[in-house]
Design brief:
The chain is of the alpha+beta class. The chain is built from 23 helices and 13 strands. The protein folds into 4 domains: 92 residues, Orthogonal Bundle (Fumarase C, Chain B, domain 1), CATH 1.10.275; 248 residues, Fumarase/aspartase (Central domain) (Fumarase C, Chain A, domain 2, Up-down Bundle); 71 residues, Fumarase/aspartase (C-terminal domain) (Ribonucleotide Reductase Protein R1, domain 1); 150 residues, 3-Layer(aba) Sandwich (Aminopeptidase). Strands 7-8-9-10-11-13-12 form a 7-stranded mixed β-sheet. The chain has a two-stranded antiparallel sheet with strand order 1-2. Strands 3-4 form a two-stranded parallel ribbon. It is globular, with a radius of gyration of 31 Å. In the C-terminal section; belongs to the acetyltransferase family. ArgA subfamily.
Amino acid sequence: MSLWGGRFSEPSAAEFKQFNDSLRFDYRLAPYDLQASQAWAQALHQAQLLTAEENQQLQQALQELQVAVDNDPQLPLQTDEEDIHSWVEAQLIEKIGATAKKLHTGRSRNDLVATDLRLFCKAVGAELISGNLAAIQALLVFAERYQAAPLPGYTHLQRAQPIMAGHWALAYVQMLQRDVSRLKEAMKRIDVCPLGSGALAGTTAPLDREALAHSLGFRYASENSLDGVSDRDFALDLLHSASTGMVHLSRIAEDVIFYCSGESGCFAMSDRISSGSSLMPQKKNPDLFELLRGKTGRVFGHQHALQTTLKGLPLAYNKDMQEDKEGLFDALHTYLQCLQMLTFAVPELSVNEAHAKQQATLGYSNATELADYLVSKGIPFRDAHHITGAAVLYAQQQSKPLEALTIDEFSQFSAEIGDDVYPILELEYGVNQRKALGGTAPAAVRTAIKHANDWLHAAEAASKHVRQARLSDADKICELIAYWAEQGENLPRDKADVLQAIQSFAVAEIDDEVVGCAALYVYSTGLAEIRSLGLFPQAQGKGLGAELVAFLLWKARELGISRTIVLTRVPEFFGRLNFRLTVKDKLPEKVMKDCELCPRKDNCDETALEYLL
């Protein structure tokens, strides 16, 4: 059924219909089109453009279609409708007759498809964040397992300096952390609802568009109808994030392929992620990682295609925009699949530790240690660099490693070199010296793993139930604090105080309902305290308290705070979160000032714990 046939006296040519119709790919938007239609019907009812009975009919029919699509996502493909919007309307008319024809009052396919696509991108964006977090978790397990396993490091694909295999994995953790950050920024820009923009000039229906946006889970309604229907920046944002993420997956794939090669042999793949050759029996091929590398170009292509499609388009909607979907769907599916495959593959990798350690000593990778040794003897670094280079050249000519040269041989290059040089040329000495923040020393790697785990826990919390508090949360926060104050667990706080300190609060949600809160209070001493932590009883036992704490610990780190404390009657809870006991009497005096307000100040039963960031 066409949605636009009244003005036309002849049907569309079959050739044009085949070229024009989009149902073959936009059927994937069915769940979101139905969701948007349910919200629109409710908004029309509130605007008195639908009766309660008509709204009920539509809601029931739309819900039945939603169940049918959930059971069979390809259900719309059993028809020859033009697009997903036509399919939904045709199905509704078949179910409830003339009432269905009222649903399109005040809206256009232009604002509807823009809304559908944003809802799709919000859902897939959340999946991509979760996919990255799972991959980070796999890399962190690898890093912990091999945090002290030496590996040859390279620049220009030439042996450079030894690194720890855990340090190598953490480099990719950093990259994927940035990918999560990019996706989160993209998600903020997606969170705008164009529904109610009409074809281009807005709707004549007397709707509350902000309430409509909120009912669909958007934070904002679009503020310009022209932009609302024609904006596809949000799709480009996701494609850019996907393309950059695929760069990182391609780089890790290239590294693994090299380290697994016969020329390196530092890594081994399990048979579960390897394939063989149809001709050469000895082969064990890294096909999984080659596909990760290869699929990167596919995602790049989709990003470039959409940029080219949008370039120079006039306002507002143009049929060119139908080309926004196929590439976007494929690119995001490819990226998510590649993240899932990386997560699956990393536990199947192992380091050939003895071989890798031996490889790490080759290539005169201890030359920098010799140069630093000479600097410690008072020789300027540039001269030390030259002396070391000459010693390396000599050692190469003698087919010896540096540590095999005698003192007499070393003395040809500098009289400052003595017997104390040999311990410095050992592999362990060099890597252990690189213990500054970001270095490859096992001690530095351990610290980096702790930081990365803290970040992961906070990111997991933020991707599930926890977010920064907003002014609109103040009443719920006050309700939570009042509840626990009545139990004697929290100090009371009035609403004005909560509003003034709203930036210090985080909230936990279940089904978009605030069920918990906590605050990070920062003292003038630079110390921070987690306080006002509480959940409604029905929300307890679901891990939300731990998520709130993880979120605030990461917030403290971002603020540059190095020590966070709690005063609590449940020290075992914080102990499970790696807080450790501290002495309450040694806390700064300002920390203890609230004790004057506490009814238990003369019989305090709180325990002090701290977390060092």
